[in-house]
Amino acid sequence: METDKEQTKNRFHHVGIVVENISQAIEKFSIALGIDKDKVKVEKMSYMSGKGEEEEFKFAFLPLAKGENNFIELVEPTTPGPTARYLEKHGEGLFHLAFESSNITASIQEFERAGIPQAGLTPTEEVLSVFLHPKYAHGVLVQILKKGVFDGSGRLAPK
Questions:
Q1: Is 35 part of any domain?
Q2: CA 107 centroid distance within chain
Q3: How far apart are CA 143 and CA 97, in angstroms?
């Protein structure tokens, strides 16, 4: 049993890279990393920011090592919103680091105790993902995912 003083184990899951054209990015990273691009699935999703702003985007996970459940996530915004503004302001590149947690509520509390508050959350029946404010995390947007949201191939796990 975990005590209040023990930290929740957060496991690295992926690094997010914001791109202008996801197809071109998949092509380049697949060649560079020796990944079969035909096995990379592009999915679409929408996200609600902490300020109530909704945006849509395409995303794809590229596996870094077979069986390791670590990925590069490519993100292409398709509507105006926070990700599109980030891309416009900073250009393509590193967007966020994501950690997977079996106890997302405890993980959020640990980050907040460390002085890193939430920047927004995904509106779902239960919390599946939260973003932590980069201003308080040394300029890095941090995402915490509920364990099991994505399967071992990086695809959204069936509910």
A1: yes
A2: 15
A3: 6
Q: What are 34-60's pLDDT values in tens digits?
A: 999 999 999 998 877 767 788 999 999
- Pick from 113, 98, 104, 79: nearest CA to 5: 113
**Structurally, how many domains does the chain consist of?**
1
> What are the beta bridge partners of residue 61?
73
- Please, where are the H alpha helices in 16-135? 22-33, 82-90, 104-113
The predicted structure's pLDDT at residue 96: 95
Assign residue 133 the CATH number of its domain: 3.10.180.10
Q: Within a domain: residue 85?
A: yes
The rounded distance, in Å, linking the Cα atoms of 119 and 104 is 15
Is residue 154 one of the residues assigned to a domain? no
Q: Say if 152 falls within a structural domain.
A: no
Taking the C-alpha atoms of residue 74 and residue 58, their distance in angstroms, rounded to an integer, is: 8
Tens-place pLDDT, residues 79-104: 999 899 999 999 999 999 999 998 88
**Paired residues of 2 in beta bridges:** none
Region at 39 (left for phi over 0; alpha for psi -120 to 50; beta for the rest): alpha
| pLDDT at 46 (0 to 100) | 86
30 in Cβ contact with 36 (< 8 Å): yes
Q: 105: domain range?
A: 10-146
